[in-house]
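Sample pair:
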Amino acid sequence: MGATRLRQRERDLDRVATGGIHVRWMIRRDMPEVMRTERASFEHSWTEDDFLRCLRQRNCIGMVTEHNDVITGFMIYELHKTRLHILNFAVNANHRRTGVGGLLVGKLIYKMITHRRQRLTLAVRERNVAAQMFFRAHGFKATRLLQNYYEDSGEDAYQMELKAPAYDPFDGFGVIGPVNRIAQYDES
């Protein structure tokens, strides 16, 4: 995806934001609403301590979507050297199928590309068909079965992955984009 397309994607995201929904960093005062969405969305939900323990790690980031001062969705993800890994992702039931989840995925795709990560990954419970279909609709593919993945239930999970689109070094204006010179040596 070239720089022109990235800028267009960012403008598209901003257009949604001007419609009243925007993505921002998760802060401590968001926790009550995040916890309500978490408990309503999952049978085996995270505790507030789980969220806080995760967010204290340097490579863990939390973001929320907000509309009229109401948290409509959230995501927690980890930064790794070559990928972003989604740990938790939920949209408030009253705001599902309104584009909130797609906005969060779009933000992750943008971050994956701009931070030069090669893929997005996540684990989805085998019984969570709605999540599997949502992520599949956004280009993710199930890459393997993770047996007995969840400690709380012993349930299996599917690892799902979205690979970064090929980077186009030309943005349409003849300007060469950034080049990772170390990666050039790794490929040979």
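Residues 172-177 have pLDDT under 50 and may be disordered.
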